[in-house]
Amino acid sequence: MKQTLKTNINVIQETIENHLPAGNEEPTVVAVTKTVDEKTMRDLHALGVKHFGENRPDVFLKKYENLADINDEIQWHFIGNLQTRQVKKIINDIDYLHSLDRLSLAKEIQKRAEQPVNCFIQVNVSGEDSKSGFQPDALADTLKELEAYDKLNIIGLMTMAPIDASQEEIHEYFRSLKELQVEVGQSNFSNAPCTEVSMGMSQDYPIAVSEGASFIRVGTAFFKDAL
């Protein structure tokens, strides 16, 4: 299995290089490990993968505990919907939150975090009713309000493309998020440097890379034929 993982890592790396615009830095690849066990994560870590993404607090906490001996070498990303009541359980053990999607969540993070947390604001660029996140035209007012929350470090914006979107539509959604990130980054909000863009998963990360993603969240592509 480890050899297959290594092959898949090489394929992902080659795909990124083939889609990376000239002059852009390579994105940080977050291995979405929600479907795999700690042994597989240890294999990934041994192969050089340092960024792991989980979407359930209970599963994250179990893995965090079981991987305690290498936690200092891991960057933990929470990528799923986070209920307000769950914030206190995980917020001081994660390095990045990719799903800041409402003000009530921000308020609870401000209350529970012991130090500033790197957060991506989730933006509903596609306008899907089923998607959570802030509307693009609400970002400025949201960020103005979040200036009072010194435990939130808004490092960027995040979105997900609709599962049935065409490649052309995905390009449009990701391009829109990148433009929003640039706009916000130039607005000089006190706790929102907003230099990063988190977008792209296994099925569409090549498009995300081509549109300027700085973080991509890849699961299936890591584990193809390895499990």
Automatic annotation (TrEMBL):
Keyword rRNA-binding on entry: no
InterPro entries, per the entry: Ala_racemase_N (IPR001608), PLP-binding_barrel (IPR029066), PyrdxlP_homeostasis (IPR011078)
Alphabetized SUPFAM superfamilies for the sequence: PLP-binding barrel
Highest taxon of source: Bacteria
Ranges of residues in domain Alanine racemase N-terminal: 5-224
Entry keyword Amino-acid biosynthesis: no
Coiled coil: none
A Pfam short name: Ala_racemase_N
Modified-residue entries (N6-(pyridoxal phosphate)lysine), positions: 34
Keyword annotations: Pyridoxal phosphate
Job description of the protein: Pyridoxal 5'-phosphate (PLP)-binding protein, which is involved in PLP homeostasis.
Family: Belongs to the pyridoxal phosphate-binding protein YggS/PROSC family.
PANTHER family in the record: PROLINE SYNTHETASE CO-TRANSCRIBED BACTERIAL HOMOLOG PROTEIN, PYRIDOXAL PHOSPHATE HOMEOSTASIS PROTEIN
Name assigned to this protein: Pyridoxal phosphate homeostasis protein
